[in-house]
Amino acid sequence: MQTKENIKKWFKAARVDDFPKNGGACVKYKDKQIAVFNFTRRGEWFACQNMCPHKKEMALARGMIGESKGEPKVACPFHKKAFSLCSGENINGEEDPVTTYPVKVEDGYVYIGLS
């Protein structure tokens, strides 16, 4: 898990309006696909790798977001494997965690923190 303290670069992903409310979209940075989530019900933004470790499919940006015991999560749209949007841990405990990235919003744009 990356934190805002160890960020070397902030990648300007897209305008806030380019992301669906209470949903996700995929952005590309070099060879990375990053799922970005506008969790408007919580008033928060999250980002993680787009690849689900279960079947190695680039699908998490299309997953359903919600909460598990107050923890924001995303569930893979294909196999329903759920991952914490804060830590990346697999909530089901069956798969490897996903990489998460810090997100900030400034002047109407979404930025993703990269180390």
UniProtKB/TrEMBL annotation:
The keyword Iron applies. It comes from the Bacteria. Residues 11-112 form the Rieske domain. CDD domains: Rieske_NirD (cd03529). Keywords: 2Fe-2S, Heme, Iron, Iron-sulfur, Metal-binding, Nitrate assimilation, Oxidoreductase. The keyword Acyltransferase does not apply. InterPro entries: NasD-like, Rieske-like_NirD, Rieske_2Fe-2S, Rieske_2Fe-2S_sf. SUPFAM superfamilies: ISP domain (SSF50022). Coiled coil: none annotated. This is Nitrite reductase small subunit NirD. It comes from Fodinibius salicampi.
